[in-house]
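FORM 7B: Structural annotation worksheet

SECTION A. Query
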Amino acid sequence: MSVRAGQTRSRGSRAARLWLPLAVCLGLASSQCTFPEYELRGGVGSAGMNAHGGSSAGAGSGSGAVPLGGVGTGAAAGTSTQPLAGAAGEGGNLPGPECAPEQWPRLRCPDTCLRRLPSHCYDGEATGDETAVDCGGSCQGCTNARCESDADCLSGPCVAGGPDAKTCSAALVLSYTPQEGASSVATASWSITLTNQDARAYSFKDLKLRYYFERSGVTEPLSTGGTQSTVQLGSGESRAVAGTWTIVREEGGAEPAYDAYVEVGFTEGGQLFPGDRLELHQQLTSGDPGRSHFDQRANYSFLPEPGPSLRITVFEKDRLVWGLAPRPNHPRACFARAVNVNGPALTVSGNDWQSAAQARVTTSGSGVNQGTTTLSPAVAGALAKALETSTRLQDGQELALPAQNDTYLVYLYAISPTGGEASPSYFTLQGEEPPSSGGFLGQAVGAAQAWAKLGPYRVDATDGEVVVGLRAGSPAMSIAAVELWYPE
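SECTION B. Predicted structure
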């Protein structure tokens, strides 16, 4: 890793442009560019998916598509492409696939197209060809709602529900109870009950639940505490179930219903049998509870009263089986490049991370070796290895990563430099502070140091590099890694 002379860097002719609008229609007709709702599809000639996750045969063979909501911009999501070369101008984008007229090509991801869902699928009314509010027809499948045929349903069949109507039966039913109804809270907490009404069992390892929330401006690191999961057996007995709670961050939209979600998964091989109930209790806490709060009523999944909720989604093997997934903020992103800024090359979540030397990183900061210091939240595997080393930035210092001129979504992996800062640190990208940054509060969590994955932040690289800095007057902050994604 090269050292940059001095602690500050002149902007010169740099066009510091953040949060640019999504690139226009890539040669498609303008009428095809008005739908901001997307679903991954296989290319022409491959096996595809219908609107509700069912298969539909294509003209030839190929890999199946990923169901709606199955791919995000979280730590373990995305399709890996070849990493860009270290210097600006090297490397390049992959050729885009041939897509059907109603599809949008993902030019930077191999062999995938995006299928748009019509705008009426998210207007909160039963419009267009929908059989119920925002579901059925050309929209997502319905759950416990009116239908005309099985094709309108998400999981269960369309059955007689009254003298003049049919209803999609639900294999799994989710009920939600908020533990705190106030709008502004430092800790959001809720309970979920998932009941198996199906005739078959569901493997815990195959299930994931998502609670969608708005985090813009809330100080990191966010934490999930007070979490527990138990299964209530049909026999009346109960037992604990080993679960995982992961915060997945996405780019917010112009009118965001969410920019992150808590994903609950399970690590044990047990099953949820017919008649069993899975009970979950969850807390989500701001990194600076005294000064930085969540606005619960802006959250897609928050409801002020208890009851069945379609705003919390359930997936089985990445296929939506309960709920209505929210309008995607942006088309799904593709992995471009990542750098372990003061450590070796690694493979993290299937993506190749370069070392600082390979990436030709330069910085005016100083290298730090945390070693195997305990971190909060707990982390393991290759990511834990990446977090053993970092680069500490102080007032006005920067770290520059050569990058091909393009627009990127940037993630920063930050670590508490001292374990006891009294106020948040604020970073900059291309010389400007991202509007949605709530800062990062360096703090100790028991005997552990805090860390967080910050972002994504939209950045336009125009001078052949992405520059991360620290705002003047901010406490020091350590950066362990930088990820770049293409915002298709």
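SECTION C. Observations
The domain at 332-486 is CATH 2.60.120.430 (Jelly Rolls). Residues 82 and 458 are 21 Å apart (CA to CA).

SECTION D. Sign-off
Analyst initials: ____
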